[in-house]
Write a structure and sequence with these properties.
There is one protein chain. By secondary structure, this protein is α/β, with parallel strands linked by helices. The protein is built from 16 helices and 16 strands. It folds into 2 domains: about 1-75 and about 400-435, Urease, subunit C, domain 1; about 75-385, Metal-dependent hydrolases (TIM Barrel), CATH 3.20.20.140. The strands form 2 sheets. Strands 1, 2, 3, 4, 5, 14, 15 and 16 form an 8-stranded mixed beta sheet that branches. An 8-stranded parallel beta sheet has the order 6-7-8-9-10-11-12-13. Helix 13 (about 360-370) packs across helix 14 (about 375-380). The radius of gyration is 21 Å and the shape is globular.
């Protein structure tokens, strides 16, 4: 099927080359005024200014959509979520309002262990239906690509259940989905005093089945004081890497304990959270993400290696809605950008610390609280988010050959109005693979 979208007020994120954006380049968001997009079988086949239409599309298709007055931009690429969970945790939300700390809540069986208990009680089918509903909700909010983690099972059966649900979501959804194994989210109660025993369980009982059933693309570890040390993270990640799983890691949320150094050694795709950053951490992230590091090209996720003109690099994924919900200091986005670090934005959608997958709010919050320019925030939530899932050749920009995953705004005066009017729903409709939802 061929569809032509005409008279677009502004077509945003048009790119002919795939480049991970860092530093000053993050503010470069190319766009075309009064534009068109041609879609063939769900893929962007051509785009340009309306005055080029006759030259570029000499024979008009039957299906023509007039987008007069609308901005069109690529769908959000949410590269860090935990949307497979059994139950919300609003009772803990009330506890926090009353002044209870995270440690207090955890001590009475709350937190991650609460979600794990609920997940291990629910059937795989019910878990899938809950996750499917959330996936539909975030897609209506403009998300076209998403990474989903396990980590609320903390048992062999529970972790495999979560990953099988994610695999089923992949098979049935038109969104681009990546799966991450996060068995090392915390230590279950039974292994609180036997860390090595749980690490052995991950390595010897979980990973072989995950590899056999092809249940994950990445491996993650929550590297934090009271959770997993950098050394433990390295041990778990190296085991996962032996099965082809690449590291995407939780680091520097509460404390700086060497997680970024370990991530660089592991050639991680991304380091996520980064609320707590020292000057050394910032330098390491800049150097670890530098294309001058001499690393070998990674796979694009579709089999072909990236060209040297499209080098790999460590991405810092910022999760501002988690900081917002937990009343923590926001990630130092402005400092990271000014230090030439590569950053992405994601929602961290989860029941405990960020119960929202609304990437529009993530973008607005990044501008309001982290002083990112609208162009920087949109790039971080689209093309750089795609890089953080190795989907940069498939989604994240308006480019020929990429999926026609598009956000159509309501008539608005400018691009800056998107984060400025943060409380309004400014999305008119969302297109995934050339079809409106």
């Amino acid at each position: 099927m061929t569809t032509l979208i005409t008279n677009i007020q502004q077509l945003i994120g048009t790119r002919e080359e795939h480049t991970l954006l860092r530093g000053a380049a993050l503010a470069n968001l190319p766009s075309i005024e009064n534009a068109f997009v041609l879609i063939e079988d769900g893929i962007i086949a051509e785009y340009g200014a309306m005055y080029e239409l006759e030259l570029k599309v000499p024979q008009l298709p039957k299906a023509i959509i007039d987008a007069a007055g609308q901005l069109v931009l690529p769908c959000w690429c949410d590269s860090h979520t935990h949307i497979v969970f059994a139950k919300s945790r609003e009772e803990e939300f009330i506890d926090k309002i009353k002044g209870m700390s995270y440690a207090d809540i955890a001590a009475k069986g709350g937190g991650i262990l609460n979600s794990a208990n609920k997940l291990n009680e629910i059937s795989e089918e019910a878990l899938f239906l809950h996750a499917w509903k959330r996936l539909e909700e975030v897609s209506q909010l403009g998300t076209g690509a998403i990474e989903i983690k396990s980590g609320y099972g903390l048992t062999v059966e529970g972790e495999l259940k979560m990953l099988r649900v994610i695999k089923k979501l992949k098979a049935q959804s038109d969104l681009s989905i990546k799966a991450t194994f996060l068995g090392a989210h915390t230590y279950p109660q039974a292994y609180k005093e036997d860390h090595q025993g749980y690490i052995d369980l991950i390595i010897n009982e979980m990973l072989p089945v995950i590899a056999k059933e092809k249940l994950a693309d990445y491996i993650d570890v929550f590297c934090e004081t009271g959770f997993f040390s950098p050394h433990e993270m390295e041990t778990i990640c190296k085991a996962g890497m032996s099965y082809g799983l690449k590291p995407k890691l939780h680091v520097n949320q509460l404390n700086s304990i060497g997680g970024i150094e370990a991530a660089i050694k592991l050639n991680a795709i991304s380091v996520d959270h980064l609320e707590t950053m020292t000057e050394t951490d910032i330098t390491l992230l800049r150097q670890g993400g530098s294309p001058q590091m001499g690393e070998l090209p990674r796979s694009s996720g579709q089999g072909e290696p990236l060209l040297r003109s499209d080098p790999p690099g460590l991405i810092g994924t910022l999760l501002p809605t988690a900081a917002f919900f937990l009343r923590m200091n926001y990630q130092p986005a402005r400092i990271l950008i000014d230090n030439n670090c590569a950053i992405a934005l994601a929602s961290d959608y989860n029941p405990g610390s960020s119960p929202s997958g609304n990437m529009n709010f993530v973008v607005a919050l990044s501008c309001i609280q982290m002083k990112m320019l609208p162009e920087e925030a949109i790039n971080a939530a689209t093309i750089n988010g795609a890089y953080a899932m190795e989907l940069q050749h498939e989604v994240g920009s308006i480019s020929i050959g990429k999926k026609a995953n598009l956000i159509f705004t309501k008539p608005i005066p400018s691009l800056a109005y998107l984060p400025y009017a943060f409380g309004n729903n400014l999305i008119d409709k969302v297109m995934i693979k050339g079809q409106f939802l």
